Amino acid sequence: MTPTQLAPRFFIAVAVILLFCKGVAWLLGKVGQPAVVSEMLAGVLLGPSLLGLLLPDVKDALFPTSLLPVLYVVGQVGLVLFMFQAGYAFGAHRVTGLAGTAGVVSLAGVAAPLMLGVLLVLVTAGAVPIRAAGTSLGVSAAFVGVALAITAFPMLARIITERGHAGTRHGTLALASGAIDDMVAWIMLAVVLAFASGRAGPAVVTAGGAILFALVLWFVGRRVTTALMTSGGLNDGARVLGTVALLFLVAWYTDEIGLYAVFGAFAIGVVMPRTGNTDKVVETLTPIAATVFLPLFFTYSGLRTEFGLLGSPPVLLFAVACVTAAIVGKFGACWAAARFRGESQGVSLRVGALMNARGLMQLIALNVGLEAGIVNPSLFTVLVLVALVTTMMTTPLLSWIERREARTSATAARPAALTPMK
User: Fold this and answer.
1) In the chain, what are the domains?
2) In whole angstroms, what is the distance from residue 136 CA to residue 193 CA?
């Protein structure tokens, strides 16, 4: 298909994606689900799991194979802008006051699902077709463990804000723990990708390039971003242009060394100075990423998700085990760690529920793994299911905790009210 033929296909595909995502978001919004959940689900529904199953000719006409690389590239633009915003949000939530508890909760929230994921793959080795060709058992096990250990920090922050929990003890603790958790998980993912190459050369390039990137970021990055945001000779448009150019330059570099674009964009967001001008740049770029570009990434992911693969009993059982390990390892471990540190039952349950959401962050990791050749379609589908289930259960779980506490308070108050006066 020539570029001239591809252009109209791209425009109609984008229109369908955006309108469909908006419709699903409107429906699920009525039951309290955040937009990111709706877009994740909409992307899957537009793929072979539903549209391709019911109307395969329509699906192929809307999303021909030659269009997929275009959706991937445009979706990457959305991811770079989104991860920049996520890094900026990460840097704004400093771990203070609750640092000790946040560290323990984060450690538990990473270690438990990581170990459960690794153990699950090792136990089922050879029985479930989840290993990509040429990928070692160790790399597959490590990738699944890291995927289960990820927390959707940006979505966590969004839920806390939307539900009015900002500034509460559980909100602050979850934000601090989620920030540490995601940073550790992304570093582990980079390590897994480096080992997955199986050759010393790419691993050395990745390690050396990452060290060089960290040094430049530490000694030069904040100076450059501060100058960009505070220079009196630049207007708002110039700052937006400079930020996008910087993000794309860093994304190119981190892609070239094998760290992938999302790492570089996140790092730039972290070192950005907290100024009014920076806030304006983030507020300008974030709606574009969230409204236009991210739905394309979700659809690209959905087009590679085949829930029909779950018809295989071994894969289905593995999927159920993965979802269980994800919930027990993240929700259970974070709840237990918070209780161990002396937090109340209500705070601990809320922290566990918030930390359990994987959301977009896990989808990003899965696509990185798929592009690196260490994830096959069956494993991709299983882990997309994990992301959907753990993300969709967050809001209902928080609502259940609130109702549970309200009933407990009402029960505790009733005897006192009915006690006769002497």
Assistant:
1) 3-406 (1.20.1530.20)
2) 12
